[in-house]
Amino acid sequence: MAADAFIEKLNQQIGHEFAAHHQYIAIAVYFDELTMPQMAQLFFDQAVEERNHAMMMVRYLLDADARVSIPGVVGPVTTFDDVVAPVTLALEQEKRVTQQINELIGIARRENDYSSDQFMQWFIKEQVEEVSKMSDLLAVVRRSAHDVEQIEDYVKRETLPEGADPTAPRIAGV
After folding, report:
1. Nearest to residue 131, comparing CAs of 82, 90, 85?
2. Among 6, 112, 93, residue whose Cα is nearest residue 47
3. Distance between CA atoms of 68 and 7, rounded to whole angstroms?
4. How many CB atoms lie within 10 A of CB 30?
5. Element (H, E) at 72
6. CA 97 → CA 45, 111, 126, 141, distances in Å?
7. Closest by alpha carbon to 14, among 74, 75, 55?
8. Cβ-Cβ contacts under 8 Å for 69 (sequence gap 6 or more)
9. Which secondary structure element, helix H or strand E, spans residue 127, and what is its range?
10. Disulfide engineering: 117 pairs with which of 53, 62, 108, 157, CB 3.0-4.6 Å?
11. What is the pLDDT of residue 160?
């Protein structure tokens, strides 16, 4: 059984993941309004990933016979000064989520909750990839801020559709 402290923190993390989902939709809409379809699709796809992360956590708690509490979320930032600002925000968000995942693992380990520790390992790998992806994207966007075609070309060239990861936790409802 999952430790109570871990359950409480994971329920909070579900809210953080849904908030990230909302933020990525807002960023996608911003880029869509600028007629940057590659950037828009990248962030629509990121939004789906964040939702799936939340639902993986829900599934884990259900499987662990633990209480699931879906918290409310704060509204996303919806206005940006330029094309750099939303990507900067996305990178900050991914770094914050990485810290949150590390805190969850710390709780699981302090509580000798080995199942929860094991569950969280996939999220560590995922966060390394997400921070790297947003760091690279931010570098390109900063360098090409006045040339949206260059940004779009980069995203089209470098962003490949992700296949199903057989090591990923199950998603509730799927």
Report:
1. 90
2. 93
3. 8
4. 20
5. none
6. 17, 21, 11, 22
7. 55
8. 11, 14
9. helix 114-143
10. 108
11. 75
7 contacts 115 by C-beta, under 8 angstroms: no
What is the rounded distance in angstroms from the CA atom of residue 8 to the CA atom of residue 15? 11
φ/ψ (deg, to 5) at 78: -120, -5
Q: pLDDT per residue over 82-122, tens digit each? A: 999 999 999 999 999 999 999 999 999 999 999 999 999 99
**Are the C-beta atoms of 62 and 6 separated by less than 8 Å?**
no
pLDDT band at 1 (very low <50, low <70, confident <90, very high): confident
Cβ atoms 124, 30 nearer than 8 A: no
- Tokens for 111? 């509580």
Q: Please, what's the b/e burial string for 75-95 (b: 16 or more CB within 10 A of its CB; e: otherwise)?
A: ebeeebeebeebbebbbebbe
The mean pLDDT of 115-130, rounded to a whole number, is 97
pLDDT at position 58 over 90: yes
